[in-house]
Design goal:
Helix content is 6%, strand content 56%. The protein has 382 residues and is mainly beta. It has a 20-stranded antiparallel beta sheet that branches.
């Protein structure tokens, strides 16, 4: 399917606008120290102490890392370090009149693999777990992760994700996803998505070879909210169904985003996470009155909550760029919107609503921040 789709679309390349790296010149990024807590009634604990850093090294190479304090007694093991994520990333985008090609490679330890941007079906995917926090097996994608997506303005497209395992983890290679898709707003606030082909597995360990199957999604905009439903069937497996609600940016969801607020019913409790300190480098606060805007990059930052309310990943997905961004002498200003709770999704290996559906359901929460990088050149003095 993917080969036939590519063969029908690639002849349009003569009208292409060209390649975009969506990166910028100069060593620029940020460092952030965060800590979490979980509490309920007369119980409480500090946890999830993380130092996160992201940097654009060259216009075609980025780095991202999250180091954590190993979970356990603060008295017996105060600052033993572990790694949640640590990888180098390089991406390229080919933008044409009626189609786009997105290519990405990550090398290292990765917990968020969606690229170039998660569609509604991807919001139901299982997140790498937390068993490694208590001495269990690795739960991250460790090695080289490559992704490619071809999408047409009609809504049709194809996606491919491959993992070459390494860095002390599993060995060999896995084709994690290889499917054709259709995505379209169909009017009246309705949206539909469809996948057919090799789908990512749900039971752990994640990252095994894709299983043939289909995904169907239908969503409806209801004021500021969107409610969507998923049906998923893989070969020789039970069917899954899911429901998702997206909230949009409101005072309530922004408060939840600031606190990374979550509630867990197993080991009941509420969890929060807060930023203790954050520093940026290679960035300007104010370009000055004489600066001339020469380029922009639009991006979305995502954090995903999983079991126990743990946030262990950070991703910045760059959706478009224009103008000049690669010159390291340019001033860069990052205009950051507040973090907010973007969505909650639930998925269960049952097709009827019952106690079993809710008992066996799983689902991540996702927090989002939109950012615009603006690039300025100082105007020559008169």
């Amino acid at each position: 399917m993917a080969v036939l789709l590519a063969a029908s679309i690639l002849p349009m390349a003569a009208r292409a606008d060209g390649w975009e790296l969506r990166g910028f010149g100069g060593f620029r990024g940020d460092l952030e120290l965060r800590i979490g807590a979980k509490f309920w009634r007369d119980q409480g604990e500090l946890r999830n102490l993380q130092l996160r850093g992201s940097a654009q090294i060259t216009p075609w190479l980025r780095a991202n890392a999250i180091a954590r304090r190993r979970e356990g007694s603060w008295r017996d093991m105060p600052l033993h370090p572990d790694i949640d994520e640590a990888y180098l990333q390089s991406s390229a985008f080919y933008v044409a009149d009626r189609w786009n090609l997105s290519l990405d490679g990550k090398v290292g330890r990765v917990r968020y693999r969606h690229f170039p941007y998660p569609d509604a079906i991807a919001a139901f995917d299982q997140v790498p777990g937390i068993s490694d926090l208590t001495g269990g097996p690795q739960t991250d994608y460790r090695g080289m992760i490559t992704s490619a997506e071809l999408d047409q303005s009609s809504g049709f497209g194809a996606h491919f994700t491959h993992v070459a395992w390494g860095f002390g983890g599993r060995t060999g290679a896995s084709v994690v996803e290889t499917y054709g898709f259709f995505r379209r707003d169909i009017g009246g606030g309705w949206r539909t998505e469809f996948r057919a082909g090799g789908l990512a597995n749900r039971p752990e360990p994640l990252g095994r070879n894709a299983i043939p199957g289909i995904d169907l999604y239908l969503g409806k905009q209801l004021g500021p909210f969107t409610v969507g439903f998923l049906y998923e069937k893989r070969e020789n497996e039970q069917a899954y169904t899911g429901v998702m609600v997206t909230f949009g940016s409101t005072p309530i969801t922004r408060a939840a985003g600031t606190l990374t607020l979550d509630y867990q019913r197993h080991d009941e409790g509420a969890s929060v996470e807060a930023t203790l300190a954050r520093v940026t480098f290679g960035q300007a606060r104010d370009p000055g009155p004489d600066a001339i805007l020469v380029g922009e990059i639009y991006a979305t930052r995502l954090r995903t909550l999983w079991q126990g309310g743990y946030n262990r990943n950070y991703a910045e997905l760059r959706t478009s760029s224009e103008g000049e961004t690669n010159d390291p002498s340019l001033l860069m200003v990052a205009e950051e919107a507040p973090w907010y709770l973007d969505l909650e999704s639930l998925v269960s290996p049952h097709t009827t609503v019952s106690n079993s559906w809710f008992r066996d359901r799983k689902g991540p929460g996702e927090f989002r921040q939109d950012v615009v990088y603006r690039f300025y050149r100082k105007s020559p003095k008169q």
